[in-house]
């Protein structure tokens, strides 16, 4: 984490090396005062109708910045991490499925929230990630809407869908949402905060004007930990509490496994032994593919989320150990609405700061101060983890994930992806597609005449200029590597089982 010495560069004080507490405090105060002046200038440059909202947002940003200046060293002392207690993580298999007669009243107390702030740029797409087609020309948003409409029709309820957008995705999402108007679903949207990026050298905002559109690179959405305050500010939190809603289910829009789970909702609304859980984090067993994912730890007698960014360098290997930390966070979370309200009113929401260092196109080094939604766990009472099946974690971050969800590994039913019963084991294949030729969605699609049969695939690595014909089957471990300047065309109808293909193979007549 950046030390306040970053601020010393700005102040250029002759006593920079003294290291005295007084000097450091003066430097912090100086950095904060300068920042406050810059933020006031930005507010002054905003149109009258936006000034109040901007001041509200900047209050949150100034608070984050102050904590960033004050915090020294890692937020977790490694030696003080305690072993998880036996009841810290519930096994999903022990949960009871509710009877149909209570499902109606349970769902009336639920709100579904999807984190929809991300763009599709990492996969070569313009606009919100949620409008990328993932299956049968249906987008992430289409599938989510189908799932909830199906719930509403089946149980004669009105579960609302809430989308947390960012300034990057809001306008496009609003246009897309219009097409769902005639469906049996109530959709609400609100925007997470818009914070100014900070120059790493001067610790000052790089934005010169409150008009975000003029210089998009000068602003950023501060991670999904911003959900709680922005949800509250939008008025939706109070609205849903007023309607008698009790819990919200929060998940990433790109996690196709994050559907409403009635057994988890039943645990929350009809607890057997009177235990009250204000917060639930769905975790799943860690595999070698998940070693960087956040995990649950016991710390200062509370369950909390530990992210890799918080781990001291010398303990990174310990953090990645599957033996030491068996679970990782799926970012499927359940939180009690009145508890969110209480924690915010009492100003008890303390989320660890994630310092995201970036370099802009013009070479300027900046920092973004972010927080994670799951880090709020320690602020709530009776927080627990539930070890859910891997099927509830099906994120699409890259085209390698897209290959899996478009394949015959899954069938689509009412907006939910269900793994084929023909697959002998429940784990998904490990797929690695070369960045140079497969990372962008359009090029990825051009390289497959249709998606291969992956039912019996364990591992696939593809690198270089490779194309696939129609009706290809991949089984076991398949590695296909076209060296630089070479090209490999896998012919239509080919069966590759435990094969390594390399070199140059052009099939001209197929």
Shape: globular
CATH superfamily of the largest domain: Spore Coat Polysaccharide Biosynthesis Protein SpsA, Chain A
Distance between the termini: 56 Å
Mean pLDDT: 89
Secondary-structure arrangement, i.e. CATH architecture of the largest domain:
Alpha-Beta Complex
Q: Over the alpha carbons, how many angstroms does the gyration radius reach?
A: 25 Å
Catalytic activity: alpha-D-glucose 1-phosphate + UTP + H(+) = UDP-alpha-D-glucose + diphosphate
Keywords: Nucleotidyltransferase, Transferase
GO biological process, one term: UDP-alpha-D-glucose metabolic process
GO molecular function: UTP:glucose-1-phosphate uridylyltransferase activity
Could you provide a short overview of the structure?
This is UTP--glucose-1-phosphate uridylyltransferase. The protein is α/β, with parallel strands linked by helices and 510 residues long.
